[in-house]
């Protein structure tokens, strides 16, 4: 299978941005490479070594430290284990594996086994949330509790709306490198509140990476019959990909032990909403982990 990167120069550009983002987080991270059945996985670790483990799975078509920045208030209380998703921008194996069946669940299981963790809490936004739902389907007993932020895998995206408001501007941006096109994409994803650093990184990803468009499969109610872990769904009312009302309605129908919260935000939360989300997450973890 071919690399997700369009060129070696493009890959180097993305990894430079990755390192700059890690530096901006201002935390002491250790790094490890873990061998899994799907290839080598790069992992960022931080937080107290004797803290309860908390896996954070990155969103799709972004970089791991960008996702980590959303949940940095949790670093001092939990042992954070944050792998670069295989087949997504970062230092892990850069060829994709299917998100539709059990492959990514098996990948997470390999990581749990490597760290000798029988059960962990999980956080995953967007594509990362879809991975957690695959784990809940195939190996539910490894999840102590989970927080899914605007997750894939619950409702289908509106193909027409996404094509018109998201994919067409990306094509324009790739052809022209127009700052206005990139700004339009960022505004659509975040309701006009995306940080400048995040906008610049996603612009480079759009330029240099073959984007992942195959989302984790939609989860059926029957698939989650054995999944009883407490689950928190955080949704954005104005999310272009997974609108909050539809997402919450579906989650309540198929996830047995679920709590839902909706915010006035897009797929990328505003900084004010992130503060609210982190307070909700802290309370949820204190009650359920």
From TrEMBL:
AB hydrolase-1 domain residues: 68-267
In terms of InterPro entries, this protein maps to: AB_hydrolase_1, AB_hydrolase_fold, AB_hydrolase_sf
GO CC, sorted alphabetically, is: membrane
Residues annotated as transmembrane: none
- Please indicate which superkingdom the organism of origin belongs to: Bacteria
Protein's recorded name? Pimeloyl-ACP methyl ester carboxylesterase
Q: Provide the organism lineage as a comma list.
A: Bacteria, Bacillati, Bacillota, Bacilli, Bacillales
């Amino acid at each position: 299978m071919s690399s997700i990167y369009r060129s070696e120069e493009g890959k180097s550009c993305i990894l430079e941005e990755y390192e700059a983002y890690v530096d901006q987080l201002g935390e002491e991270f250790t790094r490890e490479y873990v061998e899994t059945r799907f290839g080598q996985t790069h992992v960022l670790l931080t937080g107290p070594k004797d803290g309860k483990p908390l896996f954070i799975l990155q969103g799709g078509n972004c970089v791991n430290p960008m996702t980590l920045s959303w949940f940095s208030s949790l670093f001092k209380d939990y042992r954070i284990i944050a792998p670069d998703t295989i087949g997504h921008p970062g230092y892990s194996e850069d060829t994709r594996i299917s998100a539709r069946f059990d492959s990514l669940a098996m990948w997470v299981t390999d990581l749990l086994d490597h760290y000798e963790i029988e059960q962990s809490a999980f956080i995953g936004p967007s594509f990362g949330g879809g991975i957690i739902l695959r784990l809940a389907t195939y190996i539910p007993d490894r999840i102590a509790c989970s927080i899914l932020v605007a997750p894939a895998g619950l409702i289908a995206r509106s193909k027409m709306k996404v094509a018109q408001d998201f994919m067409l501007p990306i094509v324009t941006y790739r052809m022209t490198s127009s700052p206005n096109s990139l700004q339009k994409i960022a505004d659509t994803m975040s309701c006009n509140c995306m940080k400048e650093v995040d906008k610049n990184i996603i612009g480079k990803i759009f330029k240099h990476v073959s984007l992942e468009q195959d989302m984790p499969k939609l989860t059926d109610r029957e698939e989650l019959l054995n999944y009883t872990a407490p689950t928190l769904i955080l949704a954005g009312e104005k999310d272009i990909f997974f609108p909050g009302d539809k997402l919450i309605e579906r989650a309540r129908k198929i996830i047995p032990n679920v709590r839902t919260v909706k915010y006035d935000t897009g797929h990328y939360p505003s900084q004010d909403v992130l503060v609210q989300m982190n307070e909700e997450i802290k309370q949820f973890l204190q009650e359920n982990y």
